[in-house]
Amino acid sequence: MPNSVLKGRSTRKTHTQTQTHKHTHKHDSIITVCPVMTGKPLLSFSHHSATSLGPLSRLLSTSTLFFLSSLPHSLSLSPSFSLSLSLSLSLCFSRSPVSVKFIEVDNREMKEKNPWQTPVTIIITVIGVIAIVALVTVAVLQNKPLPQKYKYGIVLDAGSSHTALYIYEWPAEKDNNTGRVEQKHSCKVKGPGISSYASAPVKAGESLRVCMEEAKQWVPGKRHHQTPLYLGATAGMRLLNMENSSASDKVFQAVEGALQKFPFSYQGARILSGQDEGAFGWVTVNYLDERLKQGLETRGALDLGGASTQISFVSDNYDGSESPSNSVTFRLYGNDYNLYTHSFLCYGKDQALRMTQAHQSQAGLATVLDPCFHPGYTATKNYSVLYDSPCVSDRKPKGAPDTFTHIGIGDFLQCQAAVKSVFNFTSCKYSRCSFNGVFQPLLQGPYGAFSAYYFVMNFLNLTDTSVPLEDVKEKLKRYCATNWDQITQQHPGVKLKYLAEYCFSGTYILTLLTEGYNFTSESYSDIKFIEKIKGSDAGWTLGYMLNLTNMIPAEAPDTPPLPHVGYVSIVSVIAVLLFILFIVSLRPLWPRCSKQPQIV
Ligand SMILES: Nc1nc2c(ncn2[C@@H]2O[C@H](COP(=O)(O)OP(=O)(O)OP(=O)(O)O)[C@@H](O)[C@H]2O)c(=O)[nH]1
Asked: Where is the domain boundary, 529, 551, 567?
């Protein structure tokens, strides 16, 4: 069919002239002509298929053309811009190729007929658009998040093996409920735990200085005075306090004196009870996992320290009536929790090693063959050092030489038997016990195992608990049997003290979990070895600070129904819909476009 043949009716008088840009096409094309009074060459477009130009596309493109052309001359857009705008709208709704015509319109003639040309319509349209743009702008600006300000808290974990400093941070305006507290920085204090400074307490205070100076750098200066600083001491100081309370007081005095010199808000140093340590570890894990806020099933906490170990979990079989000393109740975010928790003093990995070696050296011989150390390992050790702990001091063999030669033989099964000897399974006055006559309800997972559980299992590449327990034991058996020379060659960067003890530590962990706490081959897979959760270390310190700063509310806080982004999006969508409605409501005023089907 020939091009440029008009098809259909024309209700208006139009005058096509100047330029015609066409794409030839074998199908018929329809030209929709919307005459507008601009006094400039106008646009129209033709389509290759009458049906492909849908009603919405037509409405948008026509209304855009009318809107643009109804602008005063001073605001009118260039034809090319108008063309691209109307075309782009049209193309959005149609996938067919388009040909374009510039049409010159008799300005005076159309002025009489086009209601869009009336000043009222123009004013209403412009005001409507300005109002909607203003509405969206105000909504966005008003709700733009302000630059975040933070508050800080510092907790020193004075453990038996070392002290660590943790800096926590949370949004300043949300400290009372909804803001998430995160670990901003941690610093490992050089040297042993503060309990090791019993004979030189001043050094305990001095040892903290480097990390405290670091804290001054990490916390902004203007926040120093409002930043609470806590020191919590765990099993090392518990043991020292049991053994020599005046020595433990002196250590605390020295530590307090040192901490008070810093510009933070010092809140005191104290020894945490084993129950607190277990319960706050559980709070940390479940807080970081957001299980508390969301009221989800909680995760039990397994913490292995140097001098004590904690197990804490919620069990449907435990209401606190049996062995109430193991019960801690919480109301957090509107939910009640009845937590079972127990801390075993002397069952941290370092003290458990002492107990195991004490068992092996009971004869007080000059040579001790140790199945928990690698074959080829030899060291000269001191009996008085080995027995210098309340966990073993009463078992020191009489008449033993000062030193003994410690020789590794690397036998996992024998090591397991030696480790087992430190647990007492003989008496239980409750319905069920873990070990040493301590009540323990039925295990109920999942569990997070952290601190030394993680350090050790991670080193041994055994953190995957989906691997059958028997295979884990087999791997450990092979590891223990590996010659010490080979081990040191394979791990040149690892601290020798840690390296020498991994065979024992792995064996102890498996024995504690399976024999001590009664994890089976099946429930073992409920355990997840974790170091950090969302960037924060798993441990009691965060739970401790959240508790002391009342940062976990008993009742669920009211939260705004919509987050900021959702709010702005909804306002914007509504504004756009209103604009479309506004345009549609002006339908009676729309010019009746001459749909002049043309064969182009
Ligand atoms: N392999 C390895 N062991 C570590 C590391 N850091 C600490 N340990 C050891 O892991 C054990 C537990 O460490 P912590 O969790 O700090 O225990 P702690 O606070 O000193 O001990 P408690 O006072 O009983 O809580 C100790 O025997 C440490 O010597 C590490 O980075 N790697």
From this structure: 529
Give yes or no: residues 595 and 479 share one domain.
no
Q: Among 280, 351, 354, 455, which residue has the most ligand 1 atoms within 8 Å of its CB, making it the best to mutate?
A: 455
Is the confidence metric ipTM above 0.95 for this complex? Answer: yes
Are residue 21 and residue 117 in the same domain, yes or no? yes
Please enumerate in sequence order all residues whose Cβ is within 8 A of that of 490, keeping only pairs 6 or more positions apart, or say none.
none
| pLDDT digit string, tens, across residues 429-455 | 999 999 999 999 999 989 999 999 999
Whether 277 is catalytic is: yes
Give the model's confidence band at 117: pLDDT under 50 very low, under 70 low, under 90 confident, else very high.
low
Cite the annotated binding site by residue number: 306-310
Q: Which domain holds residue 79?
A: 5-141+579-599
Question: Are 583 and 63 a contacting pair, CB within 8 Å?
Answer: yes
Question: Can you give 378-421 as a three-state secondary structure string?
Answer: EEEEEHHHHCCCCCCHHHCCCCCCCEEEEEECCCHHHHHHHHHC
One domain, residues 454 and 590: no
Nearest CA to 365 out of 339, 331, 398 is that of 398
Q: Are residues 587 and 466 in the same domain?
A: no
Q: Decide if 42 is inside a domain.
A: yes
Whether 452 is in the pocket of ligand 1, judged by its Cβ within 6 Å, is yes
Asked if 363 and 500 sit in the same domain, the reply is yes
Regarding whether 497 and 363 lie in a shared domain, the answer is: yes
- Residue 46 confidence (pLDDT) above 50: no
CATH code: domain of residue 485: 3.30.420.150
Interhelix angle 119-142/55-70, nearest 10 degrees = 100
Helix axes 496-511, 469-481, angle to 10 degrees: 150
Task: Kindly give the distance from the C-alpha atom of residue 391 to the centroid of ligand 1, in angstroms, as a whole number.
Answer: 17
Nearest atom (ligand 1) to Cα of 348: 24
Binding residues for ATP: 306-310
Ligand 1 mutation pick, 161, 312, 497, 532, max ligand atoms within 8 A of CB: 161
How many contiguous H segments (helices) and E segments (strands) does the chain have?
18, 23
Please provide the DSSP assignment of 476-503 as one string.
HHHHHHS-HHHHHHH-TTS-HHHHHHHH
Give the dihedral sign, CA 159/161/165/170.
negative
Average pLDDT value for residue range 101-124: 59
Q: How far apart are CA 510 and CA 516, in angstroms?
A: 9
What are the C-alpha distances in Å from 144 to residues 2, 135, 139, 567? Answer: 59, 14, 8, 11
How far apart CA 337 and CA 146 sit, in angstroms, is 36
Average pLDDT over residues 190-203: 98
Indicate the pTM of the whole model.
0.74
The verdict on 513 and 414 lying in the same domain is yes
Claim to verify: residue 54 and residue 117 sit in the same structural domain: yes
**Measured between alpha carbons, how far is 519 from 510 in angstroms, rounded to an integer?**
9
Residue whose CA is at the smallest distance from ligand 1 atom 18: 159
Please work out whether the CB of residue 305 comes within 6 Å of at least one atom of ligand 1: yes
- Residue at which a domain ends, from 470, 504, 529: 529
Atom of ligand 1 nearest to the CA of 157: 19
| Model pLDDT, residue 297 | 96
Q: Which helix (H) or strand (E) holds 92?
A: helix 79-92
The number of folded domains in the chain is 2
The residue annotated as part of the active site, out of 169, 256, 277, 290, is 277
